[in-house]
Design a protein that fits this description.
The structure holds 2 protein chains of 2 kinds.
Chain A lengths: L24 E2 L1 H11 L6 E9 L5 E9 L7 E6 L2 E6 L3 H4 L3 E5 L6 E5 L12 E2 L1
Parallel strand pairs in A: 1-6, 2-5
Antiparallel strand pairs in A: 2-3, 3-8, 4-5, 6-7
Chain B lengths: L5 E3 L2 E3 L4 E5 L3 E5 L3 H8 L12 E7 L5 E9 L3 E5 L5 H11 L7 E4 L4 E7 L10 E4 L2 E5 L5 E6 H13 L3 E2 L2 H10 L5 H7 L22 H10 L5 E7 L6 E4 L5 E10 L2 E8 L9 E3 L4 E7 L1
Parallel strand pairs in B: 3-13
Antiparallel strand pairs in B: 1-2, 3-9, 4-7, 4-8, 5-6, 6-7, 9-12, 10-11, 11-12, 14-17, 14-19, 15-16, 16-17, 18-19
Classes of the chains: A mainly beta, B alpha+beta.
């Protein structure tokens, strides 16, 4: 038995997350790598960049190539040379100003995100806060 | 050394049931991903917390310092949290930011309408960390002698009245501070002012050393691997009341005083001191104030 009954869903949330109109940039190398990764799926798929809780510094990035969502009312879209990148409204303030980059190195290579909102990052480089 | 002091007319009394009502700093998380969100941000392994059980966990900043200590109640369809006094806002903010767009979690503050009772030396036996329900009040024995009750204000008020009628002592704020100092308990004011590291304040049971990443984990893992703390929590007496903060020990070293209280002419303190001089009975001087360590936690 819970502490509060079903009416609790109507109670106010602790903190509402800010939704802003985000700005995202991508380097030439990142756009090239995205094109290679998406190959023939450019029209039907998008690159979704999101933030999840975790890591030593509080947050971790998540990047997925997914089928273009049917309902995009909660997403913000950015098109780079035909490639669509989306972020969810909830992540807009955390991801505002990020630059997608790609490093072609064997160790620590792959997609990188430079985030001006990150004050700190953990030693392994996977987490930011 | 009193094992469970309470305050009656400003005198320490041993083995009395005492209690304190806290009327804020309660949150409820609703949604299927509630435990996963808590698991990602707390020091404890939460994702497999059994139904109708409680656990303590600390919330740290990225420097491994405490911003809150929470008692998490798995009430099956809801997760209730009791925060340290005055520490709920930062934790709620952190939790709100930690819910990803894919997760369904609603964080609801219950700062009005619900309260908790912390009942010390309860003389009640039962399974520790197991939740029982009576009417609207949820109860949990969190150690051998401390019972926590959580529920709507009218039920909690009635509960506290019953305790009083049964002879239990309602602790005022000074009585609660004395109890906390004598039992090595870190309160919300200490956490807000000093942001201690859990390992330094005898809260290693709050930490899972196998769960993987959480905010501040890098620092905790490094301290644990090194196996040596630079400070540890002690209760000590002094010949005068002490200002809070850092004090230089005559002959070398420092003590960080976290709380200090005068009880009927004797002064009791909670502080952080180097482990090498933290043994019970060790005496030291702070600029014409004599101190003696009572308990190392």
């Amino acid at each position: 038995m819970g502490l509060i009954d079903g009416d609790a869903f109507a109670l106010p949330m602790a903190i509402q997350v800010d939704v802003i109109e985000a700005r995202i940039d991508a380097s030439e190398r990142a756009i090239k790598a995205m094109k290679e990764a998406m190959a023939n799926d450019v029209e039907t798929h998008i690159l979704l960049v999101s933030v999840e809780a975790g890591g030593c510094s509080g947050h971790m990035y998540d990047m997925q190539i997914i089928k273009r969502p049917e309902d995009i009312s909660s997403f913000q879209s950015f098109v780079f040379d035909g490639i669509t990148v989306m972020v969810h409204d909830k992540d807009s303030s955390t991801l505002n100003g990020i630059v997608l980059d790609y490093k072609d190195t064997l160790l620590g290579g792959g997609f990188q995100i430079e985030n001006p909102n990150a004050d700190k990052s953990c030693g392994c480089g996977q987490s930011f806060g | 050394m009193l094992t469970n002091p309470a305050v009656v007319d400003n005198h320490l009394v041993d083995f009395m049931t005492s209690y304190r009502v806290h009327s804020a700093d309660i949150s409820v998380l609703i949604g299927p991903d509630s435990l996963d969100v808590l698991h990602a941000v707390t020091t404890q392994s939460i994702s497999n917390l059994s139904d109708n059980t409680c656990t303590f966990a600390s919330i740290l900043n990225s420097n491994g310092r405490m911003i809150d200590r929470i008692l998490i109640w798995n009430l099956v369809d809801q997760i209730a949290i009791i925060h340290l006094d005055g520490c709920s806002e930062s934790t709620r903010k952190l939790l709100s930011k930690s819910v990803s767009w894919k997760q369904e979690v609603k964080i609801i503050p219950l700062d009005s309408g619900f309260s908790s009772i912390w009942q010390y030396d309860s003389q009640v036996t039962g399974e520790i960390m197991s939740i029982t329900v009576s009417g609207q009040v949820h109860s949990c024995l969190i150690d051998e002698s401390t019972l926590v009750h959580l529920g709507p204000n009218p039920d909690i008020n009635q509960f506290s009245l019953n305790l009083k009628n049964d002879g239990a002592i309602s602790l005022d704020i000074e009585g609660l501070r004395l109890y906390q100092i004598m039992n090595g308990i870190i309160n919300g004011e200490i956490v807000r002012n000093y942001q201690p590291i859990p390992l330094e304040v005898a809260l290693s049971n709050d930490i899972s050393f196998t769960k993987g990443c959480y905010t501040g984990q890098e620092i905790i893992a490094r301290m644990d691997a090194r196996g040596a703390l630079s400070k540890t929590l002690v209760t000590f007496s002094s010949t005068r009341i002490l200002d809070l903060g850092n004090h230089r020990i005559v002959g070398g070293g420092r003590v960080m005083v976290l709380d200090s209280i005068n009880n009927n002419g004797t002064h009791y303190n909670l502080g952080l001191i180097h482990p090498d001089i933290a043994d019970e009975g060790v005496e030291f001087e702070l600029d014409e104030i004599s101190c003696s360590i009572l308990t190392k936690w």
